[in-house]
Amino acid sequence: MDLVRGFWRKHRRKILVTTTCLGSGYLLYKLYNAHTRKLADLERELAYERENDEIIKTQMKAHFDNIQMIADTTTLPHAMHHLSSRLVEEIDVSSIMDKLSKGKGILIPSEKLHLWNELKILSFTRMVLSLWSVTMLSLYIRVQVNILGRHLYIDTARGLGSSHLLEELDLIDRDDEQKFLASADFLATSGIPSLISNMQGAVKEVLKGKQLKDVFTTRVLQETVMRILDVFMSTGSPHHWVDYLMMSQDATSDVSSSDATVTKFHQLITETREVVTSNDFTNVAEISLKCCAVALVEEMETQTALAKGMQLAKLLPQIEKTMPEISAEPSKNRFLQLIRDLPEVKLFFTLLYANMPQ
To answer: What's an example of a GO molecular-function annotation for this chain (predicted)?
Structure first.
């Protein structure tokens, strides 16, 4: 016993220090072990979230690509066909050409001049209006698709915490989706009468003083087309041309807030109007219109003697021959492909889809 006491007195400090170190080391080990487990749990949680994010991205991309395909193969072709038919119905150029052809040697000079001037106005109206309509309709439908895809992404992200699979989530009502995409027919069904009238007014202003014997070159024709587009786009209130593409804001505001489907449709239409009335969209539209105008004139140049210059009277029949090129089905339409490939257009729609509302 005395030995133990003596040993304790002699080595007490060392024993206390050793015991303290061992206790501290054990405590540090426990803290480290707990911290390591927390880190492992956090890493598993982050990995799970990353996996969910990848699932969302993959499935949303598949859903969005499916909507894009529907728009390209169904919505746009249908709208283009409807639009082309309406333009032929509303702007009857063939009947005037028939009168001129059958009236040779019969029509008096004043009647003949009147018909030629009428043909001049209608031919340019139909050409520029077709160019404008096809360009703006394709951009409008792409705005629809991107807004719809954006809503699908948000709705899916909100459902991430649910135990349901993404396929089971009710993203956007199918009827609501179809109604929204079908609104692209507004231009052909309701907007075209006033569109023709205002475009014809721009054509008359620009062609005022242009005689049938005047010589048109590639440069002159391109400048004339661009001038008509500029006058048309700048005449009236800012963004007045939006009302040719979609129903007015007053028409979309008369909805019942208790109807979820109508409310969702109203929200989609409202967002679409906000986009197409933006300065960014206007810039993209102007770039696209210029690109298509240049391509149209180049197309005519390859089929005529336009490069060397030709009288306006001889140019008018050639204008009619280019109409099928402008209104060709989307899969064969050179102008639509040019629009899709424009860097400014690609950037605009990339940013539109990525710009999620809070």
So the answer is: protein-macromolecule adaptor activity
